[in-house]
Amino acid sequence: MKKFLLIAAFAVCSFANAQKGSILVGGNIGYTSENTDYRIGEAKTSQFSFSPKVGYQFNDNWTVGGEFTVASSKNDQLGAAEYKTNAFKLGAFLRYSMPLSQTFSVFADLGAGFQNQKDKTYNNNGTIDKSKADGMYVGVTPALFINMKKGFGLNFSIGGLGYNTLSYDNNGPDVNNFYFNFGQTFNIGVSKNF
Question: pTM of the predicted model, to two decimals?
Fold first, then answer.
């Protein structure tokens, strides 16, 4: 009986880290690289992103907080030109989580906020074309949380649903992007409840 109470106490303590009044700290780091070999040359694309978030769990299932993303990408198109993009997002998120067991829970994040993007094109003739865009974003991302130890765990998601807008300066284009990419992406992140 004593062992059972001790095991139950440990289970409650580890689960309590994700209860009402806790602070959530987490995020994702991503890197992609792609080389495409065409008959006339090779194209290279690489992208890096860092997305931290901090939230307050005000209810057993609800968390609200802020999120931030910084991303950079580089695309070399067959030696003709090189494109570099730096992107920045700042917004808020609302998370609903539902525990399945002491180890697993599922959650969905609704995020919205401001985004900024700066593009540079390095042409072969030595000129540099620059453009800047501002806009908004909103998205829903369902995910799975695996509690590794005392509220520290891994997050897994396989896509989401969202909408982005970007309006370029100097009479540039207005970009409206709707995406539904379930099963087309795979993200891994870490998070910790304090």
Answer: 0.77
